[in-house]
Structure formats: C-alpha cells, structure tokens
Amino acid sequence: MSNHLAYSPTPEVDLSHASQSKRESSVLDQDLAVDLDAWRATALDGIDGCDRPMVWRVLLHVVGPHPTEWAHELDVKRAGYSHLVRDQSPFHDNNLDHNLNVVTRRRDLVKEDETLLHDIQKDVARTHVALPFFSLHGMASDWMVRILFLFAKTHEDIGYSQGMHEILAPLLYVFGTDVDLAWSQHAEADAFAAFECIMHLLAPLHLTSKHQPTRTGVQVQMARLHTLLRQHDATVWLQLNSLGVHPEYYSFRWYITLLAHELEMNDTLRLWDALLADSKRFAFVHYVCVALILSHRHALLDRQADFGTCLTALQSKPTVGIEALLAKANQLREVDRRADLARVGRSTGGIGLSTK
Fold it and tell me: Which segments constitute the Rab-GAP TBC domain (predicted)?
C-alpha cells in the first residue's frame, strides 16, 4: 500500500450534456428512460467489458433509469463522498505533506479506529495480488482502504468484517479500469456508492433471521443450499451428509463474498453480471452454489473420498468454465420453476409465479 492515504481526486470534469463522454452521450441522445428489463436480459448473457461500468452503475442504483438526470445524480453523490472524506481525519489532506506516513496520522485516531484501519489494511494487502491493478503500492489499494473504513464508520450497524474487501474489489476493478476517463476518474466515489448498495442487500446475512431467530441470515441461506442440493442430486447430498461435510464448512465464504473469492476476476465479473441482473437480486446465487458443488461431482463420489478430500474439492476452483457453471445454475432454477408452476396450477387451477 502507498505510504499515504490522502484523498486526491482527479480534477472535476464538466458533466453538462455538451461535454459528456461518447458513451454517455449516445444514451442521452435517446432522451428515453433506460429499459431495465432489456438491460437485465442483456446482463444475464454477459455484458461487454466497455459497457459494464455504465450498466453496473444503473443496476446498483448509482444512477437512476433516466440518463438525462445522471449528471446531477453523479455530481451529488461524488460531492457527498468528497465531503465524507474531508470529515474523516485519517484521510483529510489539507495542509498535510503527501509523503506523510499514514502511521503518523493514526495518532489522532481513537483506539477502535486504529484497530479497524489495521484490519482493513491487512485484508486489502492480500486482495488479488496477481493483478497489477491491485498492486500493493498502487492507488487502488488506497481506494479500497478508504472506502472500507468510511463505510464502516458511517454504517455502524453493519461495520466491517472480513470478506467485504472481496465484495469491493470487483466494483473498483470495473470502474477503475474503464477506458472512458470521464467515468474512470471518479471510480472511487462511484464504487463507494455501488458498495453501499450491495452491502445493504447483503446485510441480512450478518443479522439474525426474522423468521428463525436462533439463526443468522447466512445460516438460513446455507440451510437453503443444503435443501436444494438434496432436491437436485440426492446422491451427492447423501455422500456429503454421511461424511459430515455440511454447508457451513465450505459455503459460508461463498455467500459472504458472492463467490468473488472462489473465481478469477474475469469470471467473477461475468457471474456478477448475472447476479445483478436477477430481478430477485441474489436468489440466483443459491443455484450457482449448487452448480459449483456438482462441478466437483466426480471427486466427491470417488470411492476413496473422505471428509478431507471432499472439503478440499469444494474449496477449489470449479472444474468447469464460468459459462458452463451459469448454464447449469439456470437449468437447475428452471427445473424448480416448472415444478412450482405445476404444483400451483394443480392446487389452484391457475398459474402462479415462482419464488425461485
């Protein structure tokens, strides 16, 4: 990580219609609201890398569906982030030398903030170390530390926990590697807004379930995975169950990071295209998790398989490509949808909508 965390945003650009990027102007010229259903359908099949920064901003509510309002919406959110940074002493850059080490700034932090900052820096330092974008001494590492710290300080009900850096990394990567400078120069502020959206959607995972007070949200989701696996492959389910390889041993991280830790970055981006496009948001992740388990079916059912070998397999990369994984997940979901429609039709004489 660089030896300072001063917030030094690139110079503001005029976001009036006359100076929009070519990408934004092409959307604005339509003078129409974004067709979210059409965009989601496209995203399910994978978003072109050049369009992903814009589409993700819409799907994650960084901007609304009306392109003519984007300039104002972005101005407000980016200004709000700048003010937030200025209100936090560790990152306030006024009258401070850019070479001042962050350790000296910690003297003004309360003990809790020191611990928080240390934990975040430790996690960020091991995030996607093979990607130059996340170089230990690069700007992206500073962005990550700042976003995670500010999020924890302004969302004390959620705070910071290990795994959040895995959620943030794809957002920063998409926004920060955008070839359009008018967008990429605001990657940090926009990633903060997108991260807020995702974390609010995932917050129930960390809280006690409303319907099952003795369980956390993530425990409920892992139980759902256990049930789905039994429905779709009883043989694999029985093998894992008999060996004591329960979902809490291997799938906790899958849910907490939306599988970002399990996949290479490009595969994570493709997966998230599908997850963000899902009208039920992250319900589709259950089926991706089942597909991931089934990708290891051969190893799991090996005659000599035991607790250790099965757990090792499940903690490994999927044995199939991302498109095959998503195709399998879609197939599993369609099986359940058809079963639901048939069941509802038999019980009511009509057609019901699946909750899958």
Answer: 46-279
Of 100, 64, 60, 324, the closest CA to residue 195 belongs to 60
What pTM was estimated for this model as a whole?
0.83
Counting Cα atoms < 13 Å in the Cβ hemisphere of 218 gives 17
- Mean predicted confidence (pLDDT) in 223-231: 96
Nearest one of 35, 53, 42 to 185, comparing CA atoms: 53
Element (H, E) at 144: helix 139-154
For the residues of 270-329, what is the DSSP string, one character each? HHHHHHHH-TTGGGHHHHHHHHHHHTTHHHHT-TT--HHHHHHHHTSPPSS-HHHHHHHH
Q: Which residues of 85-97 are buried (b: 16+ CB within 10 A; e: fewer)?
A: beebebbeeeeee
Q: Are 185 and 143 in contact (CB under 8 A)?
A: no
Mean pLDDT of the chain: 84
Q: Quick: pLDDT tens for 4-45.
A: 455 544 433 333 333 345 555 555 555 578 888 888 888 989
Helix (H) or strand (E) holding 194: helix 187-206
Answer with the residue of higher pLDDT: 175 or 216. Answer: 175
CA distance 250 to 222: 10
Tokens encoding 219: 């425990």
Classify 235 as helix, strand or coil: helix
One-letter amino acid for residue 49 of the chain? G
Q: What are the start-end ranges of the E strands in the chain? A: none
Q: Among 129-143, 160-174, 302-316, name the one with the lowest average pLDDT.
A: 129-143
DSSP string of 241-257, one letter each residue: HHHT--GGGTTHHHHHH
pLDDT for the residue 17: 37
Q: How many Å is the Cα radius of gyration of the chain?
A: 22
Q: Which residues neighbour 304 within 8 Å (Cβ) at sequence distance 6 or greater?
A: none
pLDDT tens-digit readout, 121-158: 999 999 998 999 998 668 899 999 999 999 999 998 88
210 vs 180: CA distance, rounded Å: 44
